Amino acid sequence: MGKRMLYTLATMTGTAVGLGASAAGLLRHQAGALRRAFDDDADRTYPTVAEAVAPPRNHDDEDSATLAIIGDSWLCGIDVDDPSLTPPNLIARGLARILGTTVRVQSTARPSALSEDLPAQVDEILRSAWLSRQLSEHWTDERRFAIISIGTGDVIHPIHGTIGIPVLNQAINRLQREGRYTVFVLVCPNLGGLPGLRDPLKTSLRRTSRVLAGSQWLAALAARATPLQATGSLTGTTRKSLLNDSGRFPSPLGYAQLSSTVLAAIADRLESPVEVDRSLDIPENGESARRPAPDAEVAS
Fold first, then answer.
1. Domain of 74: which CATH number?
2. What residue numbers bound the domain in which 145 lies?
């Protein structure tokens, strides 16, 4: 091999190594910026919910249903000015209409939550006197529901799948076994579709979040829970309007669509017909005021 060929190969190799190092450096920079923004979300305002949502008018209220909301910012309702428009209250209000009874709802969902935070959140739900089965005279499994959303933080703060999936599986099993809840899992959204992202981070997040979502889907099915697609819920209009300005979590409209997806799944599980009575949206003809839980503190 001649000297010229050796020189050419050396130059090409050096260029490839340089480009690879540059791409890796860019990925680290992009991921670091997203991680810092994600950590800052933990300081955003969100409501802590422990309420009783009353049933629609003309319904017999002999017993109450129970709703537990667990997980991260995709369910807790960050930066929503009206607490009644956050997922816990939206889902509870819809569930009250489906069942025709009072719904006791409590949320432990927190911004920037990771899978490692699930055990503590589940503990809080299982210890809650507000969600206790003793408050229902004739409770059944069909009236106790738990919704879990987790995974975004695990992609942004990478952890091993062998850690995140067993934690999710354990959370589902404890809610079913100890709390007698019917569990629904909102799997990790496709983070590669978030606005403002560029390659190489965009491609990396898309691949990682899809793998995690698939693993969560299978884990939910294996544990006899119902998996739901977060990304599939955010359709019907421009994706940008369904996410907040940062693109890291839903806008009020996005929260409403996610809540609708959960309610549709619950109605399907109960084999309940879904009818919309718009008269219930008129305050003077609709539901009575919510009753706050004892010692519950709601932060706006």
1. 3.40.50.1110
2. 46-292
Q: How far apart are CA 100 and CA 85, in angstroms?
A: 20
Q: Confirm if 220 and 185 have CB atoms less than 8 A apart.
A: yes
Q: Is residue 27 part of a domain?
A: no
Whether residue 19 is contained in a domain is answered as: no
**Total tally of structural domains belonging to the chain:** 1
Query: Which strand (E) or helix (H) includes residue 148?
Result: strand 144-149
Burial class (CB in 10 A: 0-12, 13-18, 19+), 175: buried
Digit-coded pLDDT (tens) for 36-50: 888 888 888 888 888
Per-residue b/e over 113-131, b at no fewer than 16 CB within 10 Å? Answer: bbbebbeebbeebbebebb
Question: What are the tens digits of pLDDT across the range 164-186?
Answer: 899 999 999 999 999 999 999 99
SS3 185: strand
